Amino acid sequence: MLVQKPVFNQSDPTEFVFRVFTTVPEFQVLLFLLFFLLYLIILCGNTAIICVVYTHSTLRTPMYFFLANLSFLEICYTTVVVPLMLSNIFGAQKPISLAGCGTQMFFFVTLGSTDCFLLAIMAYDRYVAICHPLHYTLIMTRQLCAQMLGGAVGLALFLSLQLTALIFTLPFCGHRREINHFLCDVPPVLRLACADIRVHQAVLYVVGILVLTVPFLLICVSYVFITCAIMSISSAEGRRRAFSTCSSHLTVVLLQYGCCSLVYLRPQSSTSEDEESQIALVYTFVTPLLNPLIYTLRNKDVKGALRNAIIYKAASDAS
């Protein structure tokens, strides 16, 4: 049933409200419990990886340094979205200010972009480890790892600041506008502007290419060289171990880049708003949830470190 909206003075500050998932109380409870449980698992799983990497000397290598930072990004990324989403499941639509929406968009785009850049850096790390194993420690120094990570964060901050500032210079008609989404993402907010947005859509497309297409192409090039190097290994066991170290990373890459490309690189006319929300749920919940599972279940070093940590904790509690 449509509810008539009150008329506000145009001088009032602009506010946004998010579309409700459902108005059925029973479904609201189920959705809240489901999303809250997934959020807790994401926090615990990724925190466990960070703790294990920084407390076990055997995991203090560039690969696990990047993995720990990826886990930290996933925690921040979901925290930017999920608490606000959970607060909007129950009751009436809760408004979010123009500044609040812009802040969420800025951090969401920054963390998501850094995530994509970091996955490309991790592919380069695997390339050096497999194609140039004798020079690995000379190339992947602690200083270079920190510089690459800092460059990824800096570039993401720059692109996100430019994109967010450009979007929020647009006029938004009316006092309170409904975002057909569960977060202040770029495409649904752009649709609410009462001005020509062709330039803004072009900028979004360029940013999407820089954040998604370019890193993905670099990852593909890295894995072409990696595959050639692996196929030249004479031992079947050696090939299996080499492929095993890369398969976890490739699984995360395909999930992350595939879902994000469907939202940000497809023409807006070919994407429905409901599809965008469903895909956004994948890279908001599924990818951060699978990261710790994929990297622990398919990595014997992390599994061994986790097992030792659990045994040590159990022994400490028993004594």
Fold blueprint:
Blueprint: E1 15-18, H1 25-55, H2 62-87, E2 96-97, H3 98-131, H4 136-139, H5 142-167, E3 176-179, H6 186-190, H7 198-231, H8 236-264, H9 273-297, H10 300-318
Parallel strand pairs: 1-3
Antiparallel strand pairs: 1-2
Helix pairs in contact: 1-2, 1-9, 1-10, 2-3, 2-9, 3-5, 3-7, 3-8, 5-7, 7-8, 8-9
In short:
With 319 residues, the chain is mainly alpha-helical.
3D architecture notes:
The termini are far apart. The protein is mainly alpha-helical and 319 residues long. The protein contains 10 helices and 3 strands; from the N terminus they run E-H-H-E-H-H-H-E-H-H-H-H-H. Strands 2-1-3 form a 3-stranded mixed beta sheet. The protein has a single domain, classed as Rhopdopsin 7-helix transmembrane proteins. Helices cover 73% and strands 3% of the residues. The chain has helices at 25-55, 62-87, 98-131, 136-139, 142-167, 186-190, 198-231, 236-264, 273-297, 300-318; strands at residues 15-18, 96-97, 176-179. Residues 1-11 have low confidence and may be disordered.
